[in-house]
Design a protein that fits this description.
Number of helices: 6
Strand order of the largest sheet: 1-10-2-6-5
Radius of gyration: 18 Å
Number of strands: 10
Order of helices and strands: EEHHHEEEEEHHHEEE
Strand content: 15-25%
Largest sheet: 5 strands, mixed
CATH architecture: Alpha-Beta Complex
CATH class: Alpha Beta
CATH superfamily: 4'-phosphopantetheinyl transferase domain
Shape: globular
Helix content: 25-40%
Length: 255
């Protein structure tokens, strides 16, 4: 197990105060900044977020069939653009986001920052670091076919751990495993060219780890009630910032 770089969570400021750490200079090479946000926002906030989107993003938003999916996509991209603007010192409208060969969103001009996002239901989680990073969040929900899915996508060790897990804990263990595997693949940026069954992560909620994957580190994101979430980063995983993003009438303000 890769346990050389334990997670260190060091909250720096109250979530109720405006962020005083904007700008890439406040994101040291050893730090990971995490944000969480609700994707359900009032119409005025949604409209303001929509004004930040690129033409490609606006086109994608227009193709959603259901309003809820469209609105949550717009809110997520708006929050991402605002935070990227803060970290890079760039107007959010001018942030150029591209998609890599395997589908990972990246900055056209990196400015020395890496980021990743994930959403499930109304929850959005964003990670910012100076090295490659991946994040995944999943709403914990009934999974009567958890073992069957695991047998298709998990490694033999993970399958056995899930099979012997007490039934009342199995669903949480399943999503713990799934988010850790997804976070690692997203951090690598190579998509499903890395088979999910080709590597093994721990299912213990308190001890995130991955076998034989140095220099990659897995870290558990502080608990979000009703969700499982995981972080993968290239090198030591030191979470120095974990805050909610507060939507206001002016989405360019963060509390």
């Amino acid at each position: 197990m890769n346990q050389e770089h334990p997670q260190c969570i060091q909250p720096r400021a109250s979530p109720s105060r405006p962020c005083q750490e904007s700008g890439i200079g406040h994101l040291p090479s050893s730090s990971v900044h995490l944000w969480k946000a609700s994707l359900d926002v009032p119409p005025a906030v949604l409209s303001a977020y929509a004004s930040l989107l690129s033409p490609d993003e606006a086109g994608r938003a227009a193709r959603f069939v259901y309003d809820q999916h469209r609105n949550r996509y717009i809110a997520g991209r708006g929050v991402l653009r605002k935070l990227l603007g803060d970290y890079t010192g760039t107007d959010p409208v001018n942030i150029a986001i591209e998609v890599s060969e395997h589908g990972k969103p990246v900055l056209r001009e990196s400015a020395g920052i890496e980021f990743n996002i994930s959403h499930s239901g109304a929850m959005l989680v964003l990670a910012f670091a100076r090295s490659r990073v991946g994040v995944d969040v999943e709403e914990i929900r009934p999974m009567p076919d958890a073992l069957e899915i695991a047998e298709r996508f998990f490694s033999p060790i993970e399958i056995e751990q899930l099979r012997t897990c007490p039934e009342q804990n199995r669903v949480t263990a399943f999503f713990t495993c799934w988010t850790r595997k997804e976070a690692y693949i997203k951090a690598r940026g190579e998509g499903l060219s890395i088979p999910l069954a080709s590597f093994t992560v721990s299912l213990d909620p308190e001890h995130p780890s991955i076998q034989d994957a140095s220099p990659w580190t897995l870290a558990e994101i502080p608990r979000i009630p009703g969700y499982a979430a995981a972080l993968a980063v290239e090198g030591p995983a030191t979470i120095t910032h974990w805050r909610p993003y507060v939507h206001q009438g002016n989405p360019l303000a963060v509390e």
